[in-house]
Specification:
By secondary structure, the protein is an alpha/beta fold. It contains six helices and seven strands; from the N terminus they run αβββααβαβαββα. It is globular.
Length: 178
């Protein structure tokens, strides 16, 4: 019994020390680069958008769950509000690519849904929780590659509208040519 308690205590301490060294992204930090495969088969890399477009990276916990389905459908049904800005947007999870492909098909996703099965990008963005899935967090990244907003208070039902409001508040340029 003492050995089990000792092992549990050691594992707890290791867990605490690992979390203590985790990256804590803040507004103004350079966003970690990523190269992830999307449900459309293409690879997307943050550095490809530098000096071209802002990026919205919306992490979600798990494909085919209620909240994530509602959030995805919001982005499908009202994605035109986001596309009015010079920004690319993605949903991302640690689900395997095939799971995300199935999810994208079921929800009619018309935007790239990124898969991070290695969890390396999720770790870099410090979104992994104790269940080893991503927390629902949306990162707004400027054309310069800097984190300009971290939204941890996501309402899946109004996700698209909220992203558009945030892009406007962040003064991300309108993509419509007049």
């Amino acid at each position: 019994m003492k050995l089990i308690k000792k092992i549990i205590s050691s594992l707890f301490l290791i867990s605490v020390s690992i979390n203590a060294v985790a990256v804590d992204l803040k507004i103004g930090d350079q966003a970690p680069n990523f190269k992830l495969q999307a449900t459309n088969g293409d690879f997307y890399q943050l550095s490809d958008y530098k000096n071209k477009q802002a990026v919205v990276l919306a992490w979600y916990p798990m494909a085919n769950t209620r909240g994530c389905t509602i959030e995805c459908k919001s982005l499908v049904e009202k994605g035109h509000l986001i596309r009015a800005f010079n920004a690319s947007y993605f949903m991302a999870s640690v689900d395997p690519l095939d799971t995300n492909r199935d999810f994208a098909k079921k929800t009619g996703a018309d935007f790239p849904m990124l898969s991070d099965p290695t969890k390396n990008t999720a770790k870099a963005y410090d979104v992994l929780n104790t269940f080893k899935v991503a927390n629902r967090v949306t990162f707004y990244i400027s054309k310069a590659g800097k984190v300009v907003k971290i939204d941890k208070n996501i309402n899946p039902l109004t996700a698209a509208e909220d992203i558009a409001i945030n892009l406007k508040q962040l003064k991300i340029e309108n993509s419509l040519v007049l």
